[in-house]
């Protein structure tokens, strides 16, 4: 009698399984709303990726940008040359800072998805419960973080360079145009990584689009010295407004204008441009073009 097991005890687990929580239908999302934890995890992952090689991703661009300043100031030869009422070194420094920030924002964002496609690890970005908007925000925010780090390193080097005086005449312009410039290139970099199928495609955009637009945007000169035709072409370059607006924040003068009201139109314009680029990139990312096929 002691060895007999009650029949009721053997059948007892069945009612517990029947009354337990049922699994949802296959394919039905369980994380609704904004996935803050997932977004933060992606952002930290992207930041750690470029910080592991910070000598290459942060400090090397700062040194390269400083070399531009050294070469151009030595080439000019005259330390008393004034542009917009300030020495040439002081004039060119904000443009170089902005140029370094934008180029590195593009480099960081354009590498994220492209490396995953080529190495076969893009599934690590597509499988987690992240929406397309959260994926885009995480990658773009990491690129902006790198741009700000590069900008800080370049600013420190510029401040220590003889003949350069960095003063915040309009702090709002420094913050706004700095963030908008980094955001624009981060979004463009993400869009480029969706299109590119190999690193040569990415390098082609860097060499034939980003670099020329950066160097021909008034970084080293004022566009009033150009012919009317090339002045019109320069004003069609969005990089021109980023760099000139950023320079206005330091010097209080720029090719756009010398008052807050004159620069405010450019500030609104670059903000609208980023919204348009962000929407386009979001739609392309949502379609799964070249990443889910």
UniProtKB/TrEMBL annotation:
Cellular localization per UniProt: Cell inner membrane; Membrane
Cellular component, GO annotation: ATP-binding cassette (ABC) transporter complex
InterPro entries named among the record's database cross-references: ABC-2_transport_permease (IPR052522), ABC2_TM (IPR013525), ABC2_TM_bact-type (IPR047817), ABC_2_transport (IPR000412)
Membrane topology of this protein: Multi-pass membrane protein
Keywords for this protein: Cell membrane, Membrane, Transmembrane, Transmembrane helix, Transport
Region of interest: Disordered: 1-30
Alphabetized GO MF terms: ABC-type transporter activity
Polar residues: bias regions: 1-11
Domain ABC transmembrane type-2: 52-285
One Pfam family here: ABC2_membrane
Transmembrane segments: 58-75, 135-161, 173-196, 202-223, 264-285
Family annotation (PANTHER family): INNER MEMBRANE TRANSPORT PERMEASE YADH-RELATED (PTHR43332), TRANSPORT PERMEASE PROTEIN (PTHR43332:SF1)
Family: Belongs to the ABC-2 integral membrane protein family.
Protein name (database record): Transport permease protein
Species in which this protein is naturally found: Alteraurantiacibacter aquimixticola
Lineage, opening ranks: Bacteria, Pseudomonadati, Pseudomonadota, Alphaproteobacteria, Sphingomonadales
